């Protein structure tokens, strides 16, 4: 979905990855631009086979709104929403690290099915440290879990700078590899 007013952009996190300049926009504000980004996020869809791993914004955005420790965001290329995710300051971080108060969790992250294979996911992940520092000021690390049945995501996260910590969690769809990146 494309927004008609790119001048309303209120986040200045940009990354170039090839021809794509991306920005991350928080979805926890109530101004008109954010309301438009929220509508755009809900219209995004992962590939059908990926949905079991990431869910969809129409389901996870209301959850983020209810939980004060979660901050949803949209990945934008210019005035177009291309991806979505949620940062969580609590989640199941206590299962991932001995220092959960110094970490944030990336969850429900995906790039719209029509926008995949363009480097947007990798570029968006590289932008996350700034957003993590803003919404979880004590965080030193960004963690995520990625399903072993999703090797494309494992490769994309590694290419974006996340490291495999050598631990696995169980999951409803199989083993979850634990990955992290420094945000400070």
UniProtKB/TrEMBL annotation:
Family matches, as InterPro entries: Acyl_CoA_acyltransferase, GNAT_dom
Keyword Glycosyltransferase: no
UniProt keyword annotations, A-Z: Transferase
GO molecular function, one term: acyltransferase activity, transferring groups other than amino-acyl groups
Keyword Transferase: yes
Residue ranges of every copy of the N-acetyltransferase domain listed in the record: 27-184
Protein name: GNAT family N-acetyltransferase
Lineage of origin: Bacteria, Bacillati, Actinomycetota, Actinomycetes, Micrococcales
């Amino acid at each position: 979905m494309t927004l008609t007013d790119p001048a309303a952009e209120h986040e200045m996190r940009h990354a170039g990855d090839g021809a794509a300049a991306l920005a991350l926009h928080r979805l926890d504000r109530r101004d008109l631009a954010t309301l438009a980004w929220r509508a755009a996020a809900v219209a995004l869809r992962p590939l059908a086979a990926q949905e079991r791993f990431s869910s969809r914004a129409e389901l996870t955005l209301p959850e983020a709104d209810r939980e004060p420790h979660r901050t949803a965001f949209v990945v934008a290329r210019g005035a177009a929403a291309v991806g979505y995710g949620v940062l969580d300051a609590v989640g199941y971080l206590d299962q991932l690290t001995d220092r959960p108060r110094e970490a944030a969790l990336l969850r429900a992250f995906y790039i719209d099915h029509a926008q995949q294979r363009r480097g947007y996911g990798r570029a968006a992940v590289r932008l996350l440290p700034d957003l993590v520092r803003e919404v979880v000021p004590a965080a030193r690390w960004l963690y995520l879990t990625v399903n072993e049945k999703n090797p494309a995501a494992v490769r994309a996260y590694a290419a974006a700078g996340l490291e495999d910590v050598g631990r696995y969690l169980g999951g409803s769809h199989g083993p979850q590899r634990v990955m992290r990146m420094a945000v400070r």
